[in-house]
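Aggregate trends can hide what the representation actually does to any particular protein. For completeness, the protein is quoted in full, as a sequence line and a line of structure tokens.
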Amino acid sequence: MPAGDRPFPIPNLAQARQKSSMAHQILVKFKEQGLEENYDEDLAKLCTDLGDLWSSQLVFRERLGDFLDIEIAQDDTWNKFGDCLADLCSELEHMAWHIQSVKDPIERIAQRSYSADDQNPS
């Protein structure tokens, strides 16, 4: 199918709002706790990646459900299997990118969290 004939995917605005809301909730939690501004770049990455991972796991669960709902012994079952597996693989690659991206910021903010706790023992 020529690229011009492919239908555009319909944006899932509700999912985008949920992802954005999750990222914002994470941001607010850290800012309310008093995380310093010099961590803002790490915090932005952390919030974005964790929000995206949260959203991606919902999509992954939906795609896995789609796979499990495929009717067996239909003429196009193997094609449907292939499509579902390709979708699952794509979502896993997306998640892997965010997992790699969040590693450094999450470690730096975790170290900062532990050092703050060491300075203020209960």
